[in-house]
Amino acid sequence: MSDTTRRQRALAVFDEVAELDGDVREQRLLALCGDDAALLAQVRALLAADAEATEPFSAASRWGAALAAEQTEGDGLLGRNLGAWTVLRIIGRGGMGAIYAAERSDGAYRQQAAIKLIRASADSRAARERFLRERQILAQLQHPNIATLLDGGITAGAEPWFAMELVDGEPIDRWCDAHRLSLRARVVLFLQVLDAVRYAHRNLVVHRDLKPSNLLVDQEGRVKLLDFGIAKQLQGGDRTATLDRALTFEYASPEQLHDAPITTATDLWQLGVILHRLLSGAHPFGLDRDTPVASQLQRLERDPEPLTRAAAQASSEQALLRGGLTPAALSQALRGNLAAIVRTCLRRDPEQRYASADALAGDLRAWLDDRPIAAVPLSRRQRTQLWLRRNRALAVSAAAVAVALLAGTAVALWQASEARAQTRIALRESESAKATLAFLADTLAAAAPERAMSTDVSVRELLDAARRKLAARNLQPQARQTVQRLLGRMYLGLGEPRLSVELLEQGLRGAPAAYPAEGLALADDLDAYASALGALERGPQSMAAARRAAALRTRLAPGDPVQAIRAHDQLADAHYHLGENAQAIGEWQQVLALAGTTPSPPVDVVSNSYQMLSGVLQAQGESKAALRYADQGLAFVEAQRLPADSPLRVNLLRGRAEALAGLGDPAAAEAAILRAIAIQQRTVGAGGTRMSMLQNARGLLLNDQGRYREAAQVMERSGAMHLAASGSAGEAALSLANLASVLENAGDYSRAITLATQAIGKLDEAGVDRDAAARRAIERVQARTLGLAGRAAEADARLQALRARAARLDGVDSAEYAMLTWQRVVMARRMHDPARGLPLLADARTRWGALVPASHPVLIHALRAEAAFARDRGELAHAERAAREALQRLVQAKVLPVDLAIARSELAAIRAQRADLAEARALLALALPVLRDAMLPGEIHRADAEQLARKLGRVRRA
After folding, report:
1. Do residues 129 and 178 both lie within one domain?
2. Is 209 a known active-site residue?
3. DSSP labels for 610-670?
4. Given a cut of 80, is residue 933 above it in pLDDT?
């Protein structure tokens, strides 16, 4: 029997007998081990360790037992000198010996240290090698989050020792609870742990014993990683694995338990357990130090408790310690990306965990920055919302709220003629009803794209008129329902899902499917219903309708590739609206595979699949693949010889625009969105929700390019304002606030304040809680705009109150608190108050520095604020240095032209004040054209630049 097999067998026997007592245990043990003396000895060792310690597979339990018998002798070290150190007191005990506090005694300087030494009774060749290895590892690891090796030597009694940095701190879990850290603050603190582990891994060291007691946090909130006693340097050639065994069960990875190679993935597992505990308050396997080893073994073979479920089962006290939450609120807060991050760490297969601590840190920083994470593919809507949270426009765009309206339905208008034929079949029993329906279908057929493209008639007007006629006309129920379904599908094609659902629900109620043609027509209507439900974020109902339609097709048209294509497309759409992107992508790829082998595939369905694949991939950051699918979809539509203005091109062109924008080609992106708008206008009309969404998307694209005046005009004229008028109170609030932010960028402060105030009123109407993040974001926009409009003192008071709420709700380490601190810096600049502004600027730099990399634009803009305050204090040389550095770093960061223009105009003002009028004019000549194109005359930066230009005179365009 191999060592690995024997160990696995020993664990199994141990598991079976551990809970038995006395003779019963002994008899069962002998029966299971038979004549295998080695197996029997190993199980007995496990049982003995279980009775005395929690680490039976490390030498620590044996060493701990030896130390317990030598406590008096160990205390004899107190007061002795070890090298330059005097031993003061015992501060802990480890597997190989005690750990002492010591003080430097050679008089060179004052310093305290923690001294660790191996006691003779615990000494062995393996123990000594491990001890010396720890000392060597510490000697090569120099990192601010790793306890530093200070000294080392061997006592007169041949006992190795070393001195390391004395950390006066608490284990990370207790420290977080003692300070009642919010979830965001805990993640920020945990990133310090990852910095230390990443550094160790880069130096080919696997810690293998990561746990809260080895992660101490000092009074300044700095994490120190301790105890490399069982750490291992990655071996020789492959530098990926080590087979040396040692573990703490509570944090042991599956490979540690099963004799598999130990890699950096082991540390990733242990980091996942720690993060689970920090966030939820519970161990993912329900373990603690008092759990018997037998129970530990059993539980560690199960799947870990999901983070959200553990949080929901937390005590009220545990939840309160995480930012004042309830268990339900804590579970809700952990749902989504955080849960996915922890789940990725705790995958049993090491290859399925994060590839590195860097990757884990990247996802946690992405969560902090509201960016998509790598561990889980988000739905397109979720990724759009995350992107817009980071955008200059407000936290969430109206486009994000309604993105599904454009994203993924078959164009029902294209099927008007087919629908008319289906309704005739359905109403064959009544000649009079047939005649009535034929009249309505003929009327509506004028709205079909192939006819609407050549007429000025508004499709929306025709549908609205037909809906009014239907309400007034006395039709038989079956005829009425058929027309309702037809209208519902056509309203969906216009991007009006609420009207579509209302009509389809009425039209589908009790609809018959007695024979194939009737059943397949019903399946098409169910597809439309499923799409409309998905657009309204009613995912489970959408999936139910899609599955019902697929079942009808399978039963009534088995083996028909066209019906299979339709079924796969609708199931994909339903998966997408449930956030199940992998399943959705698989279904859409099935559509394309079937379409490639089908002589006449349904053009609308196939083009929709191309567009949705493009959109989902773009949302996942795969812009090249997204562009490829959008272009393939356009080529497919072209190959079908559809008219140049076919509405089937609209969504594909929007997908192309989004992909091009993601690839950094805004000019080509704008051309694509303008072409989509032109087709929509010619085929459907200038109004309606879909056109508003296209215009809103164009406005956001312009805003992202720094073309604020154009963006505001587009969004106010036919984008966000229409969406605000047509949506729910909550959607209206988001649309108004988004436009307010763009107007603020453009410099129309009065209008922006009005819209922000209206948005807050809409939130009140919708019953949104006062402390909701979306509401506070809009209040922040409102306050900031008041300050830019000249009411800086009032704005600062509002921002100060908002910052106090952020401290209470989000924590002082949160991005929201940092943002409000920065906005108060901006207000101090407007008031020319460096006494107020400089402390705020220092605070903002510290808080942002903990959240973003040093190259982040907010830290560059801090230099501009520094320059402004120096100028207010008359320190012009200092002001110029800071302003020049800011401009240089902005050029290197390749920021928007408008941001460079602002920085140049500010430097021009300093150079003018220092009497270098030539450079000031040259800088303004570069800045003013950009500012004039991008902003209104009342925008503060443009106004300041224009005033300086008037003073200087003779400013020529560069």
Report:
1. no
2. yes
3. HHHHHHHHHHTT-HHHHHHHHHHHHHHHHHTT--TT-THHHHHHHHHHHHHHHTT-HHHHH
4. yes
- DSSP letters of 635-649? HHHHHTT--TT-THH
- Mean local confidence (pLDDT), 485-512: 84
What would the pLDDT profile of 311-361 be if each residue is shown by its tens digit?
Answer: 988 888 889 899 888 888 898 889 888 999 999 998 888 888 888 888 898
- State the CATH number of the domain containing residue 96: 3.30.200.20
The pLDDT confidence band at residue 768, using thresholds 50, 70 and 90, is confident
- When pLDDT is cut at 50, 70 and 90, the band that residue 454 belongs to is very low
Catalytic choice (209, 525, 569, 796): 209
Range of the domain at 142: 67-165
Q: How far is CA 662 from CA 631, 634, 702, 825, 946, in A?
A: 15, 19, 14, 32, 34
Q: Is 216 exposed, middle or buried (0-12, 13-18, 19+ CB in 10 A)?
A: buried
Would residue 774 count as lying in a domain? no
d(CA 702, CA 624): 22
Query: Does 717 have pLDDT greater than 90?
Result: no
Cα 743 to chain centroid, rounded: 28
Question: Sheet of 112-117: strands edge to edge?
Answer: 81-82, 85-93, 98-104, 112-117, 160-165, 149-154
What lies within 8 Å, CB to CB, of 64 at 6+ separation is: 52, 53, 93, 95
Contact 746, 942 (CB under 8 A): no
Neighbouring C-beta atoms of residue 88, cutoff 10 Å: 15
| Structural domains counted in the chain | 5
Q: Is 797 buried (19+), middle (13-18) or exposed (0-12) by CB count in 10 A?
A: middle
Residue 537 lies in a domain: no
656 and 627 in contact (C-beta within 8 Å)? Answer: yes
Residue pLDDT, tens place only, 258-268: 666 778 888 89
477, 511, 545 — which closes off a domain? 511
Query: 303 and 191: one domain?
Result: yes
User: Positive or negative, the Cα torsion across 368, 374, 376, 378?
Assistant: positive
Indicate whether 23 belongs to any domain.
yes
pLDDT at 690: 72
Q: Give the separation between CA 369 and CA 685, rounded to whole angstroms.
A: 39
Which pair of tokens denotes residue 48? Answer: 């003995």
Mean pLDDT of 687-707: 80
Q: Kindly give, in sequence order, each residue whose CB lies less than 8 Å from that of residue 886, ignoring residues fewer than 6 positions away.
A: 860, 861, 863, 864, 867, 903
Q: 338 near 287, Cβ under 8 Å?
A: no
| Contacting residues for 609 by C-beta, under 8 A, at least 6 apart | 569, 572, 588, 591, 592, 595, 633
Give this prediction's pTM.
0.47
718 membership: H or E segment, kind and range:
helix 708-718
Of the three residues 511, 533, 561, the one that is the final residue of a domain is 511
Clarify whether residues 175 and 318 are in a common domain: yes
| Residue 202's CATH number | 1.10.510.10
415 plus 291 within the same structural domain: no
Looking at the fold, whether 175 and 152 belong to one and the same domain comes out as no
270's tokens: 């242990």
Structure tokens at 559: 């083996």
Cα dihedral sign for 195, 198, 203, 208?
positive
Could you tell me the sign of the dihedral formed by the alpha carbons of 643, 668, 412, 725, in that order? negative
pLDDT tens, residue by residue, 525-578: 999 999 889 877 788 999 999 999 999 999 888 889 999 999 999 999 999 888
232, 322: one domain: yes
> 3-state class of 448 per DSSP?
coil
Residues 320 and 438 in one domain: no
Q: State whether 427 and 281 are in the same domain.
A: no
In whole angstroms, how large is the CA radius of gyration of the chain?
Answer: 34
The answer to the question of residue 688 being in a domain is no
User: Higher pLDDT residue, 126 or 320?
Assistant: 320
State pLDDT tens for residues 389-425: 434 333 222 222 222 222 332 333 333 333 434 444 4
